[in-house]
Amino acid sequence: MTNWIWALSFFLFGYIINMFYISVLYHRALTHKAIILGPKMMSWLGLTGGWFTGLDPKTWACMHRLHHMYSDTEKDPHSPSTFGVFGVWVGQYKSYLQIQQRLLKNDPEYTSLVSDIPFDVGITNRYNLSWLPYIVHGILAFTLSHFFQSQLIGVAYFMGIMSHPVQGWMVNALAHRFGHRNFETNDQSTNNTFVGLFVFGEGYQNNHHHFPKRAKFSVKWYEVDVGYGMSLVAEALGLLKINRFTTN
Ligand SMILES: [Zn+2]
Ligand SMILES: [Zn+2]
User: Fold this and answer.
1) What are 124-143's pLDDT values in tens digits?
2) Which ligand has the shortest distance to the CA of 204?
3) How many whole angstroms from 78 Cα to the centroid of ligand 1?
4) Ligand found nearest the CA of 33
5) Which residues surround ligand 1, an ion (CB under 5 A)?
6) What are the contacts of 174-179 at 24+ separation with CB within 8 A?
7) How do the domains of the chain map onto residue ranges?
């Protein structure tokens, strides 16, 4: 029983770190500027993002800006309308790799989309070592398993911190296909309550596509946005500043 509690705790520990980076820092701050980062926090994000999440922040921002520009058209990097609901899993990964290659080759069509981001594609990605963060977290997971004499605990930690393929698929596929719509937008975005809860507010894609510059993704009282809650806590700790002046 105790092992299960430790496993759940390490899963949540990894998951919360990952979601803080991806939902708060990559998405709401870096991509949409709904949250303002100071120079120190911005440098920290550029240096550590890839190591904590396994995904390069600049590539992620570029891919996500393309998603907003071309939502649910053929140019959308991960639309279920193009790839099918289950095909998004592989489609989003292939698009990510392709966008990263274009950035590394300094293709102006792509670099111009992220020219405001004050750091380069991460060092591991520049030198074909993008697998390295996964190895580092694998070693940490192995060490935890050894320390607690329980494989489950190491697996739980790894699944939490490296959960982005599942989160990404849920948001990109399910929250662009199943759920309620509060706004008429020019895409297939939906507000999926389950994805909204599990992926810390990211499942409210319809609200977010209607108000892309708002840090808070929920609109209705029953739409819970944990990511916005984390943003408020981080703001109280002085790590970032929520941009409350943008209204759309
Ligand atoms: Zn979307
Ligand atoms: Zn967005």
Assistant:
1) 999 999 999 999 999 999 99
2) 1
3) 9
4) 2
5) 205
6) 174/85, 174/203, 175/202, 175/203, 175/204, 175/205, 175/206, 176/71, 176/72, 176/79, 176/80, 176/81, 176/205, 177/80, 177/85, 179/203, 179/206
7) 2-242
Distance 127 CA to ligand 2 centre (A): 28
pTM recorded for the entire structure: 0.95
How far does residue 71's CA lie from ligand 1's centre (Å)? 7
Contact at 8 Å (CB) between 209 and 67? no
d(CA 215, CA 232): 10
Residue 36 has pLDDT above 80, yes or no: yes
Question: Which single residue is written with the structure tokens 């891919």?
Answer: 63
With a cut of 90, say whether residue 70 has pLDDT above it: yes
pLDDT by residue (tens digit) across 75-108?
999 999 999 999 999 999 999 999 999 999 999 9
Separation of CA 150 and ligand 1 centre (Å): 38
Which ligand lies nearest to the CA atom of residue 64 in the structure? Answer: 2
Ligand nearest to the CA of 177: 1
Strands (E), 82-232: none
